[in-house]
Amino acid sequence: MDRTVAACQVEVADLDPDANVARVADRLAGLPDAVDVALFPELGLTGFVPDDRAREAALRLDGPVLDRVREHAAATDTAVVVGFAEERDGAYHNTAAYVAPDGETTPYRKRHLWGGESAVFEPGEEYVVVETPAGPTGLVTCYDLNSARDSVAFLDRGVEALFVVGAWPATHAPNWKLLVRARALDGVRWVVACGRTGRKEVPDARVAEYAGRSLVARPDGVVAAELAHAPDDLVATLDRDVLAAQRDLVGVEVPGSVPEG
């Protein structure tokens, strides 16, 4: 069965989780009923600055802000993928969570940190694959896209889609699109990539302009749909017949590939 996804390209209020979770709620409420999964950007609940303020804004997976995300996922019957600075037993991570409508929450902790992230966060160690309406799906955060080794690891795990949350700098926007297409092509899978848009302007932190440029890439690496820079929702259907046909064409055999139904 084909499934519909939305990449909700938003601006993020850095260090203001209440404002950000309210924005998530508004976007979810406005999506078409057909949407099964909605993605929001990297660190979309907390934003980020490369100092202790990011830790002060960090959230717990079992805390009240994530509870609100779970409530909105249940109310709209939509799975949500969203990023945030996470505090876990005194350690801090750049985390993306897959929140199912029934409240089950699966975290992925970014493995490949970039720039000032390493001053705040510890890298994760695990690949995370979650069963979604799009089939077995790998969770990926931004700079992780640069790792072809990770892409192979997901292929070995029978992944049929990647959900990517990003906050890609506008100056490097062409690389974002290139890498999303590459990870679709080399894994022969659908890739849904949601980018942050707008600017970061926080006192005593470097101003940053974000690319936006959310997109969906087909299993043959072709861009199926994309956004420019403005805040918007990118809604697309992931056709399982397209996935099956492309895997058959190139002779890909992976565990659990494209089951019936």
From TrEMBL:
GO terms for molecular function: hydrolase activity. Residues 3-240 form the CN hydrolase domain. InterPro entries: C-N_Hydrolase, C-N_Hydrolase_sf. Pfam families: CN_hydrolase. It comes from the Archaea. Keywords: Hydrolase. Gene3D superfamilies: Carbon-nitrogen hydrolase (3.60.110.10). PANTHER family: DEAMINATED GLUTATHIONE AMIDASE, NITRILASE-RELATED. This is Carbon-nitrogen hydrolase family protein.
